[in-house]
Amino acid sequence: MYELVVTLILISLGYFFGRRAERKHYKSIIAREKIMNSLPAMASRMPPQDGNYDQMLVSGSVVIANDYFKMFVAGLRNLFGGQMRSYETLLDRARREAVLRMKEKAKSLGAEMVFNVKYESSNISGQTKKKPPIIEVHAYGTALRKI
Amino acid sequence: MNYENPHIPEGINTSEEHPLKNFFILLIGSVVLIVTLSVVLAVSGGWLASKIPFSAENEIAGMYNVDEDVDDVNAPELTAYLQSLTDQISQAQNLPDEMKITAHYIDSDTVNAFATIGGHVFLFRGLLEKLPNENTLVTLLSHEIAHVKYRHPIKSLGSGILVGIAISTVTGSTNSDLLGSAGLLSSLKFGRDMEQQSDEEAMITLQALYGHLNGGTELFKIFQNMREEMDIDEPVELFSTHPLDEDRIANFTQVAKDKGWLEAGNVTPLPDFFEAALASSEYSDYDID
Lengths: 147, 289
Known about the structure:
The structure holds 2 protein chains of 2 kinds.
Chain A: H1 2-36, E1 53-65, H2 68-80, H3 85-108, E2 113-123, E3 134-146
Antiparallel strand pairs in A: 1-3, 2-3
Helix pairs in contact in A: 1-2, 1-3
Chain B: H1 19-50, H2 54-62, H3 76-92, E1 102-106, E2 113-116, E3 120-124, H4 125-128, H5 134-149, H6 152-174, H7 178-210, H8 218-230, H9 245-259, H10 273-281
Parallel strand pairs in B: 1-3
Antiparallel strand pairs in B: 2-3
């Protein structure tokens, strides 16, 4: 019975704090993306041919922890299958944040754009069971600064 | 050439659906699933186990050496007395010949008694000390013997194994114990039904041996008093392996009323050596004290 109460408390704590953190994060991501649009990041491997550029490796990485609510919903989803919607926002936030950090780095180096952008994502919570997944997304690319 | 990152509308990679909606649908679905699964498995496991002949049950029980953990040899007179009552009750309950019940005495403060596979009934000193008369002792023994008569230990084992496998599979894939608890709770109902069946058989035995039910409810009052003394609340029935003490006492009265049996009558005292045997066997293993 106490187990039930503790689980319910953890779920509601996870829901309220996780959701609050998520809202705040999205607000910040959307605002910063607007500013960073001036510095495009491209997946293309072919750099512009119209001049000479300095090339620098830039990267941005972010670690986002799951919350108990998301983990619980995902666990239930495991039983039935289907889209794991509770984790979609988690990964979406991580990817966008990683690109933003990469662009911020590029901007500080005076670059105009970033080419050949790639993502890596990994789970860093280890193999232990019952641990909420903690994900790292790492974005990296070649920043180009006009000479 | 122009390079730009256009603004991408929100909601492409994520879903706009409220997370709580998803949560409740999944939660209700999985609870229904696990409860149904547990009930079906508990019933079928119990049914299958009841098909195991008692002789095969004895063989399973034979793998475990009972004598090592009981104190029968330290209290021979007491054990013989318990066994003679057990034999009388077995006869009163019309147990089949192959179903031999063995009463065991355990020198421990635990206030409890239980029956297990192979027809072994264990009685703890802690509970025996609290018994006011023979009628209450017979109620206790009849209740435990009835468990064997109705094959409750092997049925619980059978359903426990199946439900346990199902629960560990489900909790393994969901990483949450909550669903496991839901499954366990739904199988507790069967345990409570078994207790009630045994209580009723105990009443029939009391009536057959003494002609009245007096002394029977004293057994549940022992547990009730113990909880009061230790200031423990009785668990909510849904979470309990046994029916509530009050309900068990009320059930006695109800059955007595329905069948026209007497709740009053002369109680038989316990034999003189009973108390002395309990006291002398106490901690006899630790004479150094």
